[in-house]
Specification:
CATH architecture of the largest domain: 2-Layer Sandwich
Structural class: alpha+beta
Shape: elongated
Strand order of the largest sheet: 15-14-18-19-21-20
Helix content: 25-40%
Radius of gyration: 29 Å
Number of helices: 15
CATH class of the largest domain: Alpha Beta
CATH topology of the largest domain: Heat Shock Protein 90
Largest sheet: 6 strands, mixed
Length: about 500
């Protein structure tokens, strides 16, 4: 990624000169380069920039703070040192970065405007937590830099600002040239998935990405890529330090446990979710074992329902909790099952996945993935997952919340007699849920059909229904419908 040129930095300063003089997220100075003052100002201006919804704060040397004239400066930031002694002073840039927390991606540059020497320090706005200098947090109040803890009203506003900024809207990479953006994001895939022709100019491409919140425009014709843009359309998530651990992992094991890894999909580069979705589906489908099922009359080969995989994978991507550090979505393929997990417990109980309206932590991500038809318009698609497994006579899917994660499991073919009691109860419950949305009750006959059993095996199904009643997952239907036998059932929540 390219640093801004002197001309681009000059353009930034010209834009700052048009801002109101009482703006709190930048400061003009002549020659006062006291290191302690600069450190406090970096903290105060960074926090003020967050409150002002600006991507960066600035300290500019060589501009008169009164009338905003370019007067030049004697300060030389790039060669500035702190202290002295036999070994010489400490580099100012390293000194500043070492005392500001979180450590900012600070740009420090000396250049000229109209022949006048100028110095600029640019640093990101605070994100997630207030910026501190020497473990003290500051804020700008008018022209003054003061301790943040002495202004609890501003401190409260700042924390609310962090809490109210969705993860997708936060900056993944900033201070990028137009060429940087198009090198990092697969903009051709973006227009392809939208079914729109790509614009003829790079400027038009960037403006469209900005309209869809993939980018934020910075001063001086520079750009920032949001987390939304990076997550969906990164050519390589490894280029985004805050997102690389969110790349999709796919692991295949040789048996039914984690003891022996056959292979892990190692994709370099690691594409964003929209860019790499189809290739991930293809890889998973090819890696799944084909199972032979012995039916009542003949053998047949059955696979995992593609519709179920296409619903569960987007769910894991969309509903993950991006606040969980160092974790991302994982697909694990075993000899007898497929597990898809994501960090973050679901926002609704797993037993209510099928009947509750969908809720997402990441609405911008979900909305755009609906636009490009990676997930369906009305939500989770769990009904498709359940229906497709029933149609294939597979064990019912399992949804769990181990620790602070959400786990979805699809099982391979298994004969009715080989299913555990929990498998049978789970299948009965989800079957009742699915029928309820078709305004039908669960009956002995419908459950026999779901398991592919003959009418003579009705007593076995009756035992399953009784066990599911005992587990309080179903209840007798209050209105079984005209012509329906009295032994009809509905989900417990119906």
């Amino acid at each position: 990624m390219s640093d801004p040129t002197d001309e681009q930095l000059a353009a930034v300063i010209r834009e700052l000169l048009t801002e109101p003089r009482e703006a709190t997220w930048f400061e003009f100075k002549n020659n006062n380069d006291d290191p302690e003052t600069i450190g406090k100002n970096v903290s105060g201006l960074s926090n003020a920039a967050a409150l002002a919804k600006k991507p960066f704060g600035y300290i500019v040397f060589g501009i008169d703070d009164g009338d905003h004239r370019v007067v030049g400066t004697t300060v030389r930031l790039e060669s500035k040192t702190i202290g002295g002694g036999e070994r010489g002073g400490q580099d100012f840039t390293n000194w500043l970065r070492g005392l500001v927390d979180p450590t900012p991606a600070t740009l420090i540059r000396d250049f000229t405007i109209n022949g006048q020497p100028i110095g600029i320090i640019r640093f990101p706005a605070a994100a997630h937590t207030p910026t501190a200098f020497k473990k003290v947090r500051y804020i700008r109040v008018g022209p003054h830099t003061v301790r943040l803890d002495r202004h609890p009203d501003l401190e409260e506003q700042l924390w609310k600002r962090f809490d109210s900024t969705p993860f997708e809207s936060r900056i993944a990479l900033g201070d990028l040239s137009p060429a940087d953006v198009t090198n990092l994001l697969d903009h051709a895939k973006y227009f392809d998935l939208l079914g729109e022709p790509a614009p003829d100019t790079r400027t038009a491409v960037l403006e469209q990405l900005e309209r869809d919140a993939m980018l934020v425009r910075d001063p001086g014709s520079r750009w920032s890529i949001t987390n939304l843009g990076g997550l969906l359309f990164a050519k390589d998530l490894n280029e985004f330090p805050g997102l690389k651990r969110k790349a999709l992992r796919i692991i295949r094991y040789t048996g039914t446990d984690k003891l022996h890894t056959e292979r892990e999909r190692s994709v370099t580069p690691a594409p964003g979710y929209a860019v790499g979705f189809e290739s991930a589906i293809e890889y998973i489908t090819a890696a799944l074992p084909a199972s032979e099922y012995i039916g009542p009359a003949f053998r047949e080969t059955r696979g995992y329902p593609p519709a179920a995989i296409r619903e569960l994978l987007p769910n894991a991507l969309i509903h993950q909790d991006f606040g969980v550090q160092g974790a991302g979505p994982v697909v694990e393929i075993y000899a007898d099952r497929l597990e898809i997990s994501n960090p973050g417990a679901p926002l609704i109980e797993v037993q209510r996945f099928l009947d509750h309206p969908p809720r997402s932590r990441n609405e911008a991500l979900a909305s755009f993935m609906r636009r490009i038809n990676i997930c369906e318009e009305r939500g989770s698609g769990i009904d498709k997952v359940v229906a497709s497994t029933e149609l294939a006579l597979l064990p019912a899917p399992l949804f769990e919340t181990p620790g602070d994660n959400t786990l979805s499991v699809l099982f391979g073919p298994r004969a009715f007699g080989d299913m555990e009691t929990d498998d049978l109860i789970r299948a009965c419950y989800w079957h009742a849920c699915l029928l309820h949305f078709s305004h039908k009750p669960l009956t002995n006959q419908s459950l026999r059909k779901r398991f592919g059993l003959e009418p003579s095996e009705g007593s076995r199904v009756s035992r399953i229904i009784r066990k599911t009643l005992d587990a309080t997952l179903i209840k007798k239907a209050s209105d079984p419908g005209v012509g329906t036998k009295k032994w009809a059932y509905a989900p417990f929540w119906a």
